[in-house]
Structure to design on (335 residues):
């Protein structure tokens, strides 16, 4: 099939909204990553989203809304904390897991009684939801297992020919997916770190707990709090190994044979193997912005093994660390 390249203008937005209302699937930009959207009410369209991505059936989708009225349509109960979080962080990169409303089909949530909801701040995403009048279920618009798309070109690379359209907007500002928390357990729990940091969340949820799977490998055979935690993610074809090092990263890769590196800007002058810079160590926001592109480019380095220098697991760096350790399949070297 032909995948239509839609402009990010009013016309493109109207056409995307029309395709979605008619049961189509369209990749749309958000402030975090591009999402592959379908009407959250249309089970056939939802099925196409799973199959275009090759997504495991037990991994639920996030429902995107444009206002608080829509939240009442998709969630069965809205606790006081959800209102407070929405006030502070929406629209923006925060997803809340809430009890699922009866209008949302079970397949959106992979059969769970909960639903993940987020109100994106990207004006194009906002206007497409608003014009279609539909809550949009949208996972990241990549083939399952590959790095999430932060550019329209990444979406076409993965899903060109398999989806009805892509809205061709610019690069995503945050670069890693939204922070996911659940309000369906007590105390509330961080399931996936993202653009909204743990310190920011603590202002509203002082007792929030961090799920152990955020920083380390879930134990085999044990149930996980969020199905996405157990899958291999974000991986190029080469072997990625995460390296935690306060200093000495350049010396380490220079002593390894036939490898590549994903590194910080300040290290470039010292690194002798093929490498990609993904941002500045002191500014983890730039690392979040550059990580997924760097992982996609890693295969072009021509090395079988690529060592990636991990950021400090704090602030936005926690989200980058969480994605990198998954891209590395939990293979970590501590220098
Ligand atoms: O920033 C984002 O969140 C992007 C953009 C497009 O909005 N979307 C995104 O979707 O990252 P996806 O499908 O790639 O990741 C959704 C994550 C998965 O890890 C999934 O397991 C988790 O959210 N999730 C969804 N519904 C859930 C639920 N009801 N309970 C627990 N975890 C849930
Ligand atoms: Mg994803």
């Amino acid at each position: 099939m032909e995948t239509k390249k839609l402009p990010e203008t009013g016309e493109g937005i109207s056409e995307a909204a029309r395709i979605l209302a008619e049961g189509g699937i369209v990749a749309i930009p958000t402030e975090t990553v591009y999402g592959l959207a379908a009407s959250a009410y249309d089970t056939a369209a939802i099925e196409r989203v799973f199959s275009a991505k090759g997504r495991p059936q037990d991994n639920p989708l996030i429902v995107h809304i444009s206002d608080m009225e829509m939240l009442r349509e998709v969630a069965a109960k809205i606790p006081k904390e959800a209102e407070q979080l929405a006030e502070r962080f929406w629209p923006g990169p925060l997803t809340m897991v809430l009890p699922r409303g009866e209008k949302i089909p079970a397949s959106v949530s992979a059969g769970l009684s909960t639903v993940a909801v987020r109100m994106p701040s990207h004006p194009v995403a906002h206007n497409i939801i608003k014009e279609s009048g539909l809550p949009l279920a949208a996972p990241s618009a990549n083939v399952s297992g590959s790095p999430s798309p932060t550019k329209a070109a990444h979406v076409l690379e993965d899903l060109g020919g398999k989806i009805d359209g892509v809205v061709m907007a610019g690069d995503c500002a945050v670069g890693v997916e939204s922070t996911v928390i659940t309000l369906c357990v007590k105390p509330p729990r961080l399931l996936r770190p993202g653009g909204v940091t743990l310190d920011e969340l603590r202002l509203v949820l002082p007792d929030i707990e961090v799920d152990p799977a955020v920083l380390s490998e879930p134990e085999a055979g044990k149930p996980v709090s969020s199905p996405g935690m157990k899958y291999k993610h974000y991986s190029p074809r080469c072997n990625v190994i995460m390296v935690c090092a306060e200093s000495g990263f350049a010396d380490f890769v220079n002593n390894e044979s036939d490898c590549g590196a994903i590194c910080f800007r300040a290290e470039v002058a010292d690194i002798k193997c093929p490498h990609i810079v993904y941002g500045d160590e002191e500014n983890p926001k730039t690392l979040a912005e550059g990580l997924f592109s760097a992982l996609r480019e890693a295969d072009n380095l021509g090395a079988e093994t690529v060592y990636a220098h991990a950021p400090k697991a704090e602030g936005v760096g926690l989200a980058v660390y969480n994605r990198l350790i998954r891209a590395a399949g939990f293979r970590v070297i501590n220098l």
